[in-house]
Task: inverse folding
């Protein structure tokens, strides 16, 4: 099966992800096609399918126009054949159409039509909006500026408040379900995909399909994952996780689906600064923390209350957003470097003095060090040498009475310096020890002979000449094992190839070969992110590939479990 092949029903043209042999709806055999069979056809008598837009958890989305009103553009969502085979999913799909049709707000994408084709395909028609999803903006631009986060969040709160006022709880609010439309210099986020929405009058309505009753684990509130009563405050919990991700570029916690559920239910969200080097107003972080409170009663009561809190941050604490701590850290590094450099210099000089102390300098240095520490000590040895030579010198000394004049002691102190020169005899004992130190130094000339021979051996310096500077990167092969097609994974990896090439150019990687191949493996989890990345080798090139693959984010999440991916990237370039 080629990478672009689709498993389709030959009669109803439903697309299947699982390996069914026949269509469960009409019993016709499934066939492989390289092109989507729905493109170019008409659905519901009024919508002509123009192209494929994307694929979500429940269906595939196409762009279409009205058959009689060519300028009216629509997004047609067709239920996946695998899910259409179950009664509970068909009921939920109809509920999504009914729920979204109640909404009419600039920050919500409404449903304008719903139907079923004669062949059994279920579809709904929505207003066509173009733009990146909020998840794509986070992947490319996060951490987002505080002003941008507040502006987007405020509009999302308006859309949620509109849905909540009509008794709807989204239950699967996340960045993937928000399309950001840019126009006239403004960003307008629009919420879509109310496939898991419930109303207050039927809170017990849940799907039994695995993975669809709880929403997305990273954004699901503790009451959702523990099957407790759910109200609009579950959407506010997901909004808090979304804000955390916009401000830091990362989710509050790492881990697989089960670990995310456990940590959201039992752990307090960490400080945003611990996940990214950013500084935000304390009041804004307090809003995020309160939205992610484990108990619903500890969160905001409504999206309107969140808007009021955001307006307060915007008016009072937005000025505090420039991060002074970053500047302080930059200033500390030169000081630390100077201190370390001075300590290293002192240690080198001290070591040199210990290894090669000149003998004449010892005699001059000792008198300086003796008076500096305890000055009374040199006076006592001065008295002892004067008493023995009394028979020769004692007669002239008493009449002048030098003792009163010597009390100031500045004059006699330099004179006794010649006297300790006689007592240097004990100091002379270290010189023979010092003389023994150079003896091992004499051994140095002996190994110096082979040292001169060693540089002669590696002298073949033509090695740098044939080295090649690797500047280009290409994806050689890729295999994906799981519930995502290889083509979807390949497209996401190809988007990260620019990061690989840029990283290689920045690091100026060279190789003695004309090309080098790096093998990498990773896993795509339910967050559509590449995790558990492993690359061959430990050099700069392998590290570069690993960092680049960390930015991979697929357009769709795996339906079941995770997807194991292995690939090879070839690096080539010109001579350096």
Result:
């Amino acid at each position: 099966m080629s990478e672009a092949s689709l498993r389709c029903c030959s009669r109803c043209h439903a697309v299947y992800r699982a390996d069914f042999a026949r269509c469960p709806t009409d019993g016709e055999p499934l066939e492989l096609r390289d092109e989507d069979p729905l493109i170019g056809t008409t659905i519901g008598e009024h919508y002509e399918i123009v192209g494929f837009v994307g694929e979500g958890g429940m269906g595939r989305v196409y762009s279409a126009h009205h058959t009689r009103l060519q300028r009216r553009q629509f997004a047609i969502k067709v239920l996946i054949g695998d899910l259409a085979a179950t009664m509970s999913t068909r009921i939920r799909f109809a509920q999504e159409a009914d729920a979204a049709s109640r909404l009419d707000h600039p920050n919500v994408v409404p449903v304008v039509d719903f139907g079923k084709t004669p062949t059994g395909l279920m579809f709904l028609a929505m207003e066509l909006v173009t733009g990146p999803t909020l998840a794509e903006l986070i992947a490319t631009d996060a951490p987002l500026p505080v002003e941008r986060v507040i502006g987007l969040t405020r509009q999302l709160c308006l859309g949620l408040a509109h849905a909540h006022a009509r008794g709807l709880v989204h239950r699967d609010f996340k960045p993937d379900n928000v399309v950001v439309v840019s126009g006239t210099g403004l960003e307008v986020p629009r919420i879509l995909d109310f496939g898991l929405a419930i109303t207050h009058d039927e809170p017990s309505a849940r799907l039994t399909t695995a993975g669809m009753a709880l929403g997305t684990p990273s954004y699901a509130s503790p009451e959702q994952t523990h099957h407790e009563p759910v109200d609009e405050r579950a959407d506010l919990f997901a909004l808090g996780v979304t804000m955390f991700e916009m401000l830091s570029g990362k989710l509050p916690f790492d881990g697989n689906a089960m670990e995310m559920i456990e940590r959201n239910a039992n752990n307090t969200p960490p400080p945003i600064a611990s996940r990214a080097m950013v500084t935000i107003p304390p009041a804004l972080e307090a809003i995020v923390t309160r939205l992610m409170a484990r108990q619903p009663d500890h969160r905001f009561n409504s999206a309107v209350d969140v808007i009021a809190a955001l307006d307060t941050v915007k008016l009072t604490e937005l000025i505090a957003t420039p991060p002074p701590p970053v500047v302080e850290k930059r200033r500390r590094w030169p000081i630390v470097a100077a201190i370390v450099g001075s300590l290293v210099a002192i240690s080198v000089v001290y070591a040199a003095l210990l290894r090669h102390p000149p003998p004449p300098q010892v005699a001059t240095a000792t008198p300086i060090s003796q008076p500096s520490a305890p000055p009374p000590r040199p006076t006592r040895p001065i008295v002892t040498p004067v008493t023995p030579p009394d028979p020769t010198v004692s007669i002239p000394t008493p009449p002048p009475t030098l003792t009163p004049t010597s009390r100031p002691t500045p004059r006699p102190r330099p004179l006794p310096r010649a006297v300790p020169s006689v007592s240097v005899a004990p100091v002379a004992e270290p010189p023979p020890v010092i003389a023994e130190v150079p003896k091992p130094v004499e051994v140095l000339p002996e190994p110096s002979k082979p040292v001169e021979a060693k540089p002669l051996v590696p002298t073949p310096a033509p090695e740098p000449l044939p080295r090649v500077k690797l500047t280009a990167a290409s994806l050689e092969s890729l295999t994906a094992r799981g519930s995502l097609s290889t083509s979807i994974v390949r497209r996401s990896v190809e988007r990260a190839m620019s990061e690989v090439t840029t990283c290689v150019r920045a690091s100026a990687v060279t190789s003695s070969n004309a090309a080098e191949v790096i093998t990498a493996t990773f896993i795509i989890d339910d967050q559509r992110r590449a995790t558990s990345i492993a690359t061959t080798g430990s050099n700069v090139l392998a590290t570069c590939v690993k960092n680049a693959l960390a930015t991979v984010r697929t357009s769709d999440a795996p339906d079941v479990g995770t997807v194991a991916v292995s690939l090879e990237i070839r690096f080539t370039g010109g001579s350096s």
